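Chapter summary example.
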Amino acid sequence: MKTFLWLAALLVTLPACAVDNVLLIQLLPGGTYQVWHAEGESQLSDDEVMSLEVTAKPEGGEEAPSSAGPARAFETANGVMINLPAAPHDQAILIDRDGCGHIRLWHAAGATHLTEEQITDIYISALPDGGKRLSIGTYYVKAFITKLGVTATLWNKPIK
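The structure predicted for these 160 residues follows.
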């Protein structure tokens, strides 16, 4: 009986805890958005990313081989971006570093697709310590202002 109650409690709490996706939203000139995804098809190791990062120049560093095909790093106003022209969908990765210097990668293409109206709602709800929880489609969303833009944590709404 204890096992059954434990499993029932676990099933009730899992949907509320499961983070489905994290997005980075950047406002571009003209009022459009660049949406970056925490997960993407192009996977590079930390060693590959750091090797490319040191070659970055505004006009693009030397092209180098990577596990995702040829790669070139660009120094941009938002940090270093790695261009992967041979990737089918995820052709750019933005390098981010946390306060301790650990690498976090943002992918140009991912599984979550939101409308411009939904992205705008998320963007304007953001606060440094997190804005109010929004209900967007099948997700709950909480948005935070960061040095690179707005990060939005999305998780699935519980099924009723």
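To summarize the output: The longest strand covers residues 139-146.
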